[in-house]
Fold:
Amino acid sequence: MFVDGIVCSSFSEFPEFMGRSKKKKPSARQRRSARSRAVSWLFRPRRLVLLAGLAVAAVLWPQMRRQLPDLKSQPQYQITLDRITVTPAPRWIPDNLTEDVLRRVGIRLPLSLHDPALSERIAAAFVTHPWIRTVHRVSRSWPAGIRVDVTYRRPVAMVRGVDGFYPIDTEGCLLPGSDFRQSDVNRYPVVENITTVPAAGQGQPWGDPAVSGAARLAERLLETQEDGRSYWEIWGLAAIEVSAQVGLPEELSDPQYALRTSGGSRIIWGRAPDTRHPGEVSADQKLQRMAEYHRIYGSFDDAPEAYVFDLREWKGIRRSLARDARPDGHR
Structure:
């Protein structure tokens, strides 16, 4: 046999050509044996019962699904108003707070405990309410219940405006005026001489450094003492006055304040309690001076005429008759 000019007796002498030969096909007998084994594996009692069950389930599942109870509509999975628990509120928080929170954002009850976004929705609703300062956590429980842990805003003062009083919290944020009665005005320090209007809505900062500073001063003056009363009550204070804001921009952002007593005397306080002005006497020192004077004399209105008390002096309180003092309180 000739292959490319080479004489050979058979292809067995050249193994590289053996791979080109066709593979041998299985015989009919082998094919019948494979089918027999497959049928034998399939048609066994346990496997037939399993296949039958799967076929029946596939046919009946749509109807069975319609017959199953909808867990979302079951009472134990429904969130109603009475199943929403919020951090116990202080006396100034309205009784219908939770209802008002949901109404403001358009959430309708009942809610489903199966809602995957339920906690996020509740948290977002509470954090936007003007009485809520911080939402710490929203947790779900079964039977259906929601627990909301929050920090509330605390009113500390009333800002006198041209059309009434505006309640503010410790950060100078505007609070809902409709939640206060006229009698509530006497419970809080009144801030006077504010020439601006709120820059944003309820629950947002007023936007004026004079207001935020007055709020921080009011917070210090409302600190409760051993007898359960605040400095504001003990010392017979009537208002926080913002000094006329005239000067450079940096001075306008760090205004000064005076306190007016119920008898007409004035106490020149100076800058806000947390000021960083290097020459300012600290708020603690000023409060100590006032407490000591009140302990000795019993009142800031103990004389026939009104006085002006200046707390800003490093040596102590400077007292002068109101008729001799400058109206702006500057040294």
